[in-house]
Amino acid sequence: MKAYNGRTLLLEIVMVLVSLLFLAPFYFLFVNSVKPFGEIMSDAASWPKVFQWENYSKAWELTRFPEAFFNSFVITVLGVLLIALISCMAAYRMVRANTIFNQIFLLVLVAAMVVPFQTIMMPLIRVISELGLMNTKTGLIISYLGLSTPMAVFLFHGFVKSIPLEIEEAATVDGTTRIGVFFRIVLPMLKPMLMTVIVLNTLAIWNDYLLPSLILQQPSLRTIPLATFSFFSEYTKQWDLALPALVLGITPVVVFFLFLQRYIVEGIAAGSVKG
């Protein structure tokens, strides 16, 4: 029993040390966000001598943070909702109508997951330009929909298999339509995986810099990552303003993640066991 307790204590100490290692970047981010530029350059690891909160007000104004936040919020919410809804409906149909076409289509989606974004980046921008969707939130949302749907369908596909068909048949006998069966019976049972897809795609879209930088060229359409990157140029790097902007940008998504992170474990565990 003593040996077991000793191993447990050692494991807990190791886990605490690893947790502190992962939290170290947040420490550097915060303490340097309230330092003047010279102090950041001289000693980035030290505790601030004086907390310079004016950095946040300057970053708020220079990034036009409310506008950037609104752009990021609209793109993320609409993109995630479309990805989640279309993917779960597609996966449900592919499982219940297990035709050869649907099987091949699933293989195509799985194959698309391993294609690096850099290989399709230029063709994608060409298509968006030809459709007249450059410099529009719509073009960016459609791009996210096409890029993120394969993974979401794959996750939902394995989870839908765990739903007993008899429940749907009973609802159909009671007079429920196919659409009603999906939204009243199937969709509530998909909640763990649905929340997993929502959380993962929210983190990916909110923090993405590359795709918005290719599609959104107008300053009024800048998302938070684009607005933050404005503090970096070829010859100057305004760390005293960029770091507060980063804190402002990641705070909403960190709160969102902490609020819903338990669904990720539940969804992945349920999908791996039941699927």
UniProtKB/TrEMBL annotation:
InterPro entries named in the record: MetI-like (IPR000515), MetI-like_sf (IPR035906)
Keyword Transmembrane: yes
Bilayer topology annotation: Multi-pass membrane protein
Keywords associated with the record: Cell membrane, Membrane, Transmembrane, Transmembrane helix, Transport
Domain ABC transmembrane type-1, first and last residues per copy: 69-260
Family stated for the protein in its record: Belongs to the binding-protein-dependent transport system permease family.
Protein name in the entry: Carbohydrate ABC transporter permease
Species, as recorded: Paenibacillus septentrionalis
